[in-house]
Amino acid sequence: VYYPPYHSKYNPVERCWGVLEKHWNGTILNSVEKAIKWASNMKWKGIQPVVNLLERVYKKGVKVSKEVIKLFEKRIERSKILPKWDITIEPIIG
To answer: Quick one: which of 92, 13, 89 has its CA closest to 51?
Structure first.
């Protein structure tokens, strides 16, 4: 049985957030500038991150089309007991 693809175990951004939370150690981040300063001063795996403020607004509700999902479903074998979480994915050979 595997972790869902959105699980923090597989997401480096989530891991970095965990390090950042420890770094600021409960400091109240009451301004964008303060949050950027704290994030800029941390280190993760010995590397100091480049921190930028993004003001872009992302679209909500964007989904993968049914046609694309069908292409992946052809390579997936689902468990009879836990079909949503326990799957085998056949690799693309070639």
So the answer is: 13
Cβ atoms of 65 and 73 within 8 Å: the answer is no
pLDDT score, position 17: 81
* Alpha-helical regions (H) of the chain: 12-24, 32-41, 66-73
Q: What is the residue whose two structure tokens read 């409960």?
A: 26
Query: First CA to last CA across the chain, in angstroms?
Result: 27
Q: Is the entire prediction scored with pTM above 0.85?
A: no
Using the structure block, give the residue that is written with the tokens 């070639």.
94
Chain length of the chain: 94
Distance CA 27, CA 30 (A): 9
Token pair recorded at residue 66: 């049914």
